[in-house]
Every structure is written in C-alpha cells, then in structure tokens.
Amino acid sequence: MTASPPDSAPNPGPGRESRRPGLARWLPLILFAGFLGLVVYGLARPDNREVASTFIGKPIPAFALPPASDERPGLDNAHFTGGKPRLLNIFASWCVPCAVEAPQLAQLTAAGAEIDGVAIRDRKDNLARFLAANGNPFARIGKDDLSKVQIGIGSSGVPETFVVDARGVIRYQHIGAIMPDDVPMILRKLKEAGQ
Amino acid sequence: MIAELGLAILWMAAALAVLQLVAGALALRPQGAAMVGVVRPVAVAQGLMVALAFAALVTLFVTTDLSVKLVAENSHSAKPLIFKIAGTWGNHEGSMLLWVTIMSLAGAFVALVERRLAENTLLATLAAQAFVSLGFYAFLLLASNPFARLAQPAPEGAGLNPLLQDIGLAFHPPTLYVGYVGLSIAFSFAVGALITRDVGPAFARAMRPWVLGAWIFLTVGITAGSYWAYYTLGWGGWWFWDPVENASLMPWLAATALLHSVSVLAARNALRAWTVMLGVVAFSMSMVGTFLVRSGILTSVHAFAVDPARGSFILVLLAIYIGGALLLFGLRAGTVTEGARFAPVSREAALVFNNVMLCGILGIVLMGTLYPLVTEAFGVKVSVGPPYFNPVSAVFALPMVVVMAVGPILRWKDDGARRVAPVMAVPALIALAGTAAALLAGVGVLPALGLGLGGALALASLLPLRGRNLRRTPLPTWGMVVAHFGLAVAMLGMASESAFSIERLAALNPGETRSVGPYTLTLDRIDPVAGPNWTALQASVSARYDGGSAVVLQPQARVFANPPGTRTESALLTRWNGQLYVVLGEEGDDGRWQMRFWWKPFVPLIWLGGLLVGLGGLLALVGRVARDVKRLVAIDKIAFRRERQGR
Amino acid sequence: MRTLGSVVAAFLALAPLAPVAAQDSMPPAPYAYRQLPDAAQEAKAQALMETLRCLKCQSQSIADSDASMAGDMRNEVRLRIAAGEQPEAIRAWLIERYGDYVSYTPQLNTLTWPLFAAPAVILVVAALLLRGRFRRGRKA
Predict the structure, then answer these.
(1) Neighbour subunits, A (≥3 Cβ pairs < 8 A)
(2) Which domains does chain A have, with CATH numbers?
(3) Hey, are the CB atoms on A49 and B273 less than 8 Å from each other?
(4) B71, B154, C12, C62: which sits with the fewest CB atoms below 10 Å from its CB?
C-alpha cells in the first residue's frame, strides 16, 4: 500500500534545501564523449581479424613430423639449425589461398630461399594432387594431423609463412597468402635473419 | 510495383515525421497554438504509413520477388513460409525498417492513448520522437534502402543463413525490437520533460506504462534469445557475454533501473534527475547496441552484415541524439534536482541502492565489451569473456539480490532495521544454510551463492503478500511479487546449471548404450531424412529415466544447400527436474557416431524465471492501466454529472 | 592483403556454420570429442577449455566450437591435463604463443588493470554521488 502524496510543489522552491547538481550532471556527457572517441577509433582502424603469433624471437619448439608426401622427407626442428635461414610454410591442400600463393613460393625458391612445409590435417592423396597442380617448392613436408606444430609456434590459420634463422629462432611471421608484392619483403627478412 | 510503392510510402512517412517535428516544436511556442491540433493526427498517420511500407516488404519476401536486391540476397523460393516472413528482418535493411516501424507505431500509440501527460510535455515528447525517427529514416532511405531493385532479376535467391532458419527468428528479433525501440518513448518522454521542465509524479505516472511495456518485451526477447541459442548452437550454453548479447542486456539493465526509479518518482516525488537520466540512458543503450552490432568493430558470433560505412552513419546519429540529450540534461539539471528526502533505511534507499547496483553492472558490461577496442589502440589484442563478466557482475548482483529481498517490505521514507529483522530471519537462514550446504557439496563459490541467495529471494519475494487478503491485493503488487520471484527462479536455474550439469561425450555404434545422470541412452539407428530445403542424418536415441520406459529422441545433423551450410538440430527432453540434451555429431573413421549428451538439472528454470519476470511486468502494467482507465472514466462521469447539474 | 583479409574474414564469418568448402577432411583429434577417463581431470580440463578462445571462430570458446583447430586445441589441453600439467600452466603456454587474446580470462597487466579496478571505482563513485542524499537524524 504505497502512500501517494498530492502533487505539491513539483520543483523545490528557493527556500527548500536542495542540493546543487554540481559537476555530476556533466559526468554522463563526458563518459559518452569518451565512448565516441573510442568507437571512432574502432571504425577508423583497418579491419584486422588476424591473430599474430607472439612466439617471434623464440626458438622453434622441438617436433618431429612424419612425411606428408611420398616425394619429400618429413620435418623436424633440428633441420632448422646449423645452416642458413629458412622459410617455414604452414599450408594445406584444402586451403584455397594456399593455391593462390604457389607462384610466389616458386619465385622465392628461384631467388634462393629454401622452404619447408607443414601440411595441416591433410590426406596424402589430396596433398599429392595439390602439389601436382600447384608445384612443389618444399625441401621437406611434415604431416601435422593434430595441428601440434601449428599451435606450438602460435600460428592460427593457413597459409602462414615463418622466417626461421640459422639458430632455429623464429624471426618473422607473414599471415595469409604471399602476394607478388610481398616477395621482396620476405627475401629481405630472410637476409636480415642471416645477419 | 510493390517495391516502388513501399519506397514511396516510406518517403511519405519520413515527410510526416518532419511535419511532426516542426509542428511539435512550433506548438510549444506561444504563437504556435494553431499547430497543437496537428501533431497527434500526424503521428498516427506516420505510424500507419510506415506500417504499410513494412507490410510491402513482407509481401515482397513472401512472394519471393527476386527482382528486389534484398530478397535475392536473403531469401529463397523453397524456404518454408514462416522463414520467408521472418527472413524480412533476418538482414540489416529489413531489421532497420522494423526498427523504424516500431518507433513510429509506438509514437502513434502514444498520440492516440496518452491522456495523462500535460499537453506541452506530450507535444515535446512527440516532437522528440519524430526527431529521433528522422535520423533512422535518413539512414534507411539514404544508406540502407530495403526496396532497391536489381538491374536483372536473380534466377534464384541466396537463401537465409541456416542458423537463422528456426522458429526463434520469427520470435526473438521482433520481441527484442519492440523492447529496444519502445524505450525510445521513455527517451522522448525524458527529453520532452527536460524541455518543458516538467518532472514530477504526474509525469512519472504517465511514463510508467510505456517503460513497463518496453521492458516486458525486452525481458521476453532476451529470454527467448537465450533459449534459442541454447538449443540451436549444440553445446548447451545459454549466455556467453558475447557483444551482441551484451548489447541486449545493457538496455534491459537501464530499463529495469528506470522502471524502479519511475515508481519512486510517481509515489514519492524523489529521484527526479535519476529518472530522467535513466530514461535517456536506456534508449541510448539501445542505440549503442544497434551500433555495436552493425558496425563490425567488435567480433561476435552474431555477425550481422557488418559494414563500417553503416557504422559511421549510426555513430553520427548516436552523437546527435545521445549527445544532445545528455547536453540538455546537463543544462537543465538545475531544474530537476532531487525532491523529497529519505532515510538510509527506507524503500527509497533500497531502490536507489539497487539502481546503483544495476548501473554498476551496466558500466561493467559496457566497459568489458569495449575493452578489447581500447587495448587494440595499443596494439594488443585481449579477450574479455565469461571468466571476467561472471564474477565481476556478481560483485554488484549479489548485494542487489540481498537488498531486493528486503526492499519490498521496507516502508517509504523511513524505516527501522529492527522492524524488518524478524521478518527477514527465515530468508537469511535459507541463504546461509543453502550456500553452506552447496559449498560443502563441492559446488563452486558463485553457483553456491546463487543457490543460497536464490532460495532466500524466492521466499522473501512472497513476503509482501503476508497478512493480505490475496483477492484484494492490487495487481501491481502481484506483479512485483511475481517478477521478483521469477528472478529468484531464474537464479536458481542458472546456479543449478552451472553446478550440476553433467556432460557425456560418446562414440557409439547403433545398439550401444551410455548413461548420463539418471538417464540411460541407447543409440538405436541413424536414418537419412529430408526437409523442405535440407537433408539430414537423424539419430534415434532411446532415453530411459532411472530404467523406466523409453522415450525416443531424434537429434539431426542438417545440411542446407542455399546457402550451403550445416546445422545441428539438438533433441531435448524436459522433465520437472531438468532437461536431457542430445546432439548428433559426425561419423568417425571407425563407423562410430559422435554423440553428445547432457543432463542439466533444473535448467528450464532459467527461462521459466525470465518469463515469470515478464509476467510480473504484465500484471503490473494491466493493473496500472486498468486503474488509469477507471480513474478517467470516473473523472468523465463526474464532469458529465457536474455539467448536467450546472445547467 | 586487404582483399585476402576480407576473404578470410568471410570464411571466418561462416565458421559457426561449418562451410562445405575450406575445411579439412581428416578425422577429429583423439581427444577432441572424447572425455578423459578421470572425472576430476576432465572437470579441470573442461573448466580450462571454457576459458580458452577458438582462434578461427568469431567468438567462441574451444569448448563450444566444432572447428577442427578447436578440436586440436581440446586434444592438446586434455592430453596435458592427463599428463599432470596444471591448467594455469597450460594457459600460460598458450598465451606465450598467441598472446592474451587466446584467454577469455583477462590477465592482469599494465594494459588491463582498469578492468580489474573498475568495480571498486564504480562503487566509490556511487558512494560519492549518494553521499548527502539521505536525511539524517529525526525519524518521521
């Protein structure tokens, strides 16, 4: 049973004690301005859904993958040490952009880069067909059915390419297919890794 | 033809909105007396026009008119009729048209039935409503035309996303939209009152039914959405603090606070500034939610058709409307200082405390949802999810539940803790004993508190009925009791689901059996089945409760063609004490079928509680409206009698 | 690069929908859909998986996703728990590779401390706003 007092004095007159609203009344507007600034930044920034690896600068973890293809040996981490910087390409036959970057990988090998591949969740026959159709730039191809190596180096999709230096330390990650414009940059990163 | 007609009608409705705004603004001035009679009819006409435009769009979808771009991109001739209709709002343009339609219809409804509000304030309200509508009309007509034609009619439509081809789509978005957009009425009321400087109990009593109405739809819409996600996503989750889910929760939190604040203003002429501020904030949260969902700045499972250009447009609207309203509030805050005072232990104080708690949760949810954007500015990506939101919102929610238990029995203005302590003894005991028992049983801290406090609240919410003649108890009081009880029920469901759910993953051959909780489940066989626009593999699973007779459940894994995709159709079996949830997965290389089984004790209470909360609101609304109608009829009778006597 | 980004984004947008193309045809990892035999270990694993983010989905935990990489991550988590690793160590192992993004539990550091301070700040601000609101002393 709520008491309903009559509508007397809808607003306090000057005599009644009433607290001045003070600065608190501008607080919502100020907070909103902050919100606006934040979302303007959000709209302006380029849309980036990629998750970059934070394992750059760390040594490639220990792994030993069986061969994914009858034409190439399997891959292990020891292969990366004691030589020159190499490229590690995470790919799969079911990955559409991987076919797109095949010519660029061929370009890189022609320029002297050595590429090893890790095939994610791939069947041997599908992979063989993929390599036949798109060329085989890889020195070795490891079969990673459980994404172990992929997770181990912080890769979150296919295709991705990593630059690994002669001590086995990951130096650079390129997310997505390598486009023609990216080839010089990759070669440069390889050279930097050699210094 | 229909598309062009629809577009033309939409332009006319926009023109009427302009007229409504101009006439309303002019009518507020002393020289504008002639405009006063124009505003209400124009508002009604605008509502009717835009409803016709919406009907035109629905017709285009129902007839699968493939020369219209929207239909070609989102519909398909083989779709079942209900999804053709629901598909109207299963896309960006259509849902924006739904938004504008509801906004205009709400304004028309106000113009038709609102009799309590002071004339000036009503005119200001309708003008504000038209002003806000105009922004969305502009958005629709200039950047999201639903009636755009294709140069060549498409041979066939792209179809509706299979995840959306469910009865939930027919129900969840429209309900939610009536809630979101219904809050625009509260927004317009608040702005109107700020303009005319008329914030008092009469204003509050006029505003309350509109807030209640929108709030009921929001409550039901969120509940429906949660249940839909639960049975359709195939993993038994019912809330993930996903940005789009948060976008619907934030207006609800503000609207709940507003609802209680408006009651205090109506009853005690207190919390004026608070009420007006919340009126602005509630719809602002609706708009912020719409913006977040459509702009693509946050990653979400609900990915609408995202487009930063659209996001920018809505952002400009946000800046104008929310910024304008908050600026107006800052400028006029002097005239809406607080009214009557009250003691620290009183019903007002309890309501203020809980409003602060609700706003606290609102702040946390907003901050957590936007925080990944902040860190991205520094080049770092973070994820803020249930492990953050659950405990941090509990910091505010649990004290709120405690105060909610005692608030309804506190007196207005001033009360003593000593008076209510004996009454609260039993609920307090339940809270302590329940929590302790749960903790001892190995339940986690949060679910244990949920069980204890939920039980306590369930009892405490019934206390206002103590000692009353139940048949003479006013409906609004029943509404409060049912709504608070509903929240307690939902809490118990949530805590139970969290604490007692059992999951079993099994790879089964037909004929094999697995048990989960009290159920023994046997995979009988797998059959191919076909639907109107899908094919599926269907499992027949016999479920026996405690060895009783078998009930057959038939989960499916469906494959759609237009557009291509798959969706699991989970099978649910509901008992009084819980729900059995069965999902069919893939066939393994060894021929075994991947099955997922859950026994979730008391989980339906979550949504039953949500519906009860909505029901409580409905009872309160009916009670108040009935009282208003009775009063108006009585006033009319008295005026009529006086007239007769005076002759 | 941007066009590829939008292609990838389009595929990611369909992730909960399991598109027919761009998916591998290999069977799921052994422990992607199999629970650990020890109930206590499985509970620990499940609790952890619910707080780890699926990297190929729009916004789902690895416990709630049918994506094959999520399944591989579940497999990894379960095997490590079975081998005796602590959940927080596994989380740290993943964060070392993917950053804080992979964990739905925000980690306390110089960038995220406002998230943790927020509840206290809100309570303090609320108390300040309400101070002086109440009538002191005399009862009605």
Answers:
(1) B, C
(2) 64-193 (3.40.30.10)
(3) no
(4) B154
